[in-house]
């Protein structure tokens, strides 16, 4: 096997780089912000891009969307970047570092970056950034997949989301053999005792947890599809809760027991139960589902495959319906004269400014939802 090449840089000993890795809807955004609140740590904020993710603040490697987007990019071999990537030229490494350092606080030396695609780019990032640390967050596949399905424009059938979960975490298990510093935790453990894991992560990266401030300010994080964004504290650790997981587990129980498509969901549970067990998860145990239900209702492979095809077709139609308004908007913009597009954009910005004056809590960076700039 070809060995990873290590790209050196002049100030390699000055900085540490912490990359938070995990699929979308795994809790990585919250964890990344909490790590950035540790002493001497700095993360991206007020960038105006979705979730302040580094993938949108550089032009060295393509973002997740180039490889199919949420729930799909892990299937594209091009998205799996390693230390042997052709992108790892000295010029590209310098450009990538400069792009991100422009947003990190230069007075801090522990730089934190979170992007979902980091999960299958660890070897690439380690080669580009000496002194790299990887914090890998893993969440129950039921919660991740059902949460991902809430994004209708990228809706994917549950069996493909399960397969994508296994694909990406399978890649990272292999890539971990090449990494020098890795901290791996489960979302379910983190929400039970966040203070413990903040202490462990702080020790892992060589810092400590600060004393909670008596007073704090708040900022907004750009979050799709919410135009208002997410309001988060500047210095106080964000609170975690098990409520979100429980909501998805309850829904999964209903899908298996009461859904008109329960044959499909039971087939999927039967098919993937043993594969997720290798990662410490079950699709039935602990979720209020009687395991006997799956044994008694064994579904043939032919029927199961037919159900999966039907689920794929249904997801495709829902994606099409969700994307049609944006598609039409893009087509209309393409045929309108530039001066008219500018007028429409300015009118939208004026409306947003007026809204901000009426409601000061509305973040300006998230209020501009008119015609996108070229």
Question: What characteristics describe this protein?
Answer:
374 residues; alpha/beta; Rossmann fold; two-stranded antiparallel ribbon; globular
Describe this structure in words.
With 374 residues, this protein is α/β, with parallel strands linked by helices. The protein has 3 domains: 16-233, Rossmann fold; 243-332, no CATH class; 335-360. It has helices at residues 28-36, 90-101, 122-128, 141-148, 158-175, 187-192, 194-205, 243-257, 262-277, 291-296, 301-335, 338-358, 364-367, and strands at 16-21, 41-43, 110-114, 132-138, 182-186, 218-221, 230-233. The strands form 2 sheets. The chain has a 5-stranded parallel β-sheet, with helices on both faces. It has a two-stranded antiparallel sheet with strand order 6-7. Helix 5 runs parallel beside helix 9 (262-277). It starts with 15 loop residues before the first strand and ends in a 7-residue tail after the last helix. Mean pLDDT is 85; it is low at 5-9 and 355-374.
